[in-house]
Amino acid sequence: MADEPATGDKRRTLPSVDRLLAHPALRAAIAANGRELAVNAARAALDDARARIQAGQASPTLISLAADVAQRLEELTAGTLYPVINATGVIIHTNLGRAPLSAAARSAMDAVAGGYSNLEYDLEAGERGSRYLHAERLLCQLTGAEAALAVNNNAGAVFLALTALAQGRPVVISRGQLVEIGGGFRIPDVMRQSGARLIEVGTTNRTHRRDFEAAINEETALLLRVHSSNFKQIGFVSEVSLAEMVELAHARGIPVLDDLGSGSLLDTSRFGLAPEPMVQASVAAGADLVTFSGDKLLGGPQAGLIVGRAELVGRLRHHPLARALRVDKSTLAALQATLLHYLRREAEREVPIWRMIATPLQALEARAAAWAGRLQEQGIPATVVAASSTVGGGSLPGETLPTRALALAHQNLDGLAKALRQGRPAVVGRIADGLLLLDPRTVLPETDATLIQALIAAWQHMAK
Ligand SMILES: *Cc1c(COP(=O)(O)O)cnc(C)c1O
Description:
Blueprint: H1 17-21, H2 27-33, H3 35-54, H4 62-77, E1 84-86, E2 90-92, H5 103-113, E3 121-122, E4 127-128, H6 133-143, E5 147-151, H7 154-166, E6 170-174, E7 180-182, E8 185-186, H8 187-194, E9 197-201, H9 209-215, E10 222-226, H10 242-250, E11 256-261, H11 279-284, E12 289-293, E13 304-308, H12 310-317, H13 320-324, H14 329-343, H15 347-350, H16 352-358, H17 361-377, E14 382-392, E15 400-408, H18 413-422, E16 426-428, E17 430-432, E18 435-438, H19 448-463
Parallel strand pairs: 1-16, 2-14, 6-9, 6-10, 10-11, 11-12
Antiparallel strand pairs: 3-4, 5-13, 7-8, 12-13, 14-15, 15-18, 17-18
Helix pairs in contact: 2-3, 3-4, 5-14, 6-14, 7-8, 18-19
Bound molecules: pyridoxal-5'-phosphate.
């Protein structure tokens, strides 16, 4: 407090912007970010100090003002989007960015991101081509569909299909499928926005073939099936199967749109999970269009994938809304690389979400034990407990995979969890039964060392 005045107007003791920025503690920050940003940060720090002095507080020291400037610069330039270590055990965690991409998908993105590409250019003909060709052949080969289209996300895919095929016309859907997906995405709202007329049939728990038969007329544009991806109905329930809907619709020349939500190209029951609807099965059952997400169980980039009959996909592709929902070059690059993993039958090994689903319990136990060992060496009382991972992403509700988690007990668990969230990289775990749990299933093995460092730092922070 050497520069704090004994008497008089304390504001006068605040340094000028130039004097503040000459402080050696700011040299590196100014070199990295330029003087203009530093001047703005210094002005803001000084304004703040002036206001505090006016409120009766003591004048800050030069070093604390410099620290304030550095902090402001750091906050501004760090951005708002950071990597997070997902130790929640929720594999497709929508809030944490859903699917991590495979190494091949990341390098494919990188290969097109920094330069030009043949995104919409036919290199053979030397003229304009179509961006929609890039993922189409792979999607068709994997699903058995005639044609395919990738748009920005699956909500967009459903919206595009309804708008292009059913604007102003009735679309028939079972009451049991008028679902809310999350983030306010509700099927009835999307239908209304698209201009389709919603014709609900059946009841919440039971819808029969005769309900559809009674509702279909010559105006009907589509029958819509929506997978109730994020909830389960049990008890006195029945739905009309896709095959039956197809039979009913096709007899009258009406197409069926099947929104699978997640959709899967691999059979989830092979991993001890309930079966999630497979895209190939919907195509084989005769659905005219099938929509699913790129970043749920496909494990790729954010996208909405539409596969089905060439004539209908063509109408979607040429609708003006398709332009508003189009995907960019890096998405297409990542999508192709992801789809290729399935064609090569290496998805379980190469696509991170499948690798996580397929990780054997012993491997998880070994990792959790290794983490605990590292922490115990530092005097942190970590243990390993049995816990459950989930698939997440609004798929397979109620389904769990057995796991082994690192467990930390602390008198201030919320404080410890917060300290972990505030580190960089941030770590997000889960509190259950009075313990902070960190599930190795969703932690990418290459971040293990970083995770241990973050845990030690947060533990020590709490001891202060
Ligand atoms: C998740 C989901 C959507 C939305 O997909 P996004 O890719 O998140 O836009 C639509 N329908 C169903 C059934 C879903 O589960």
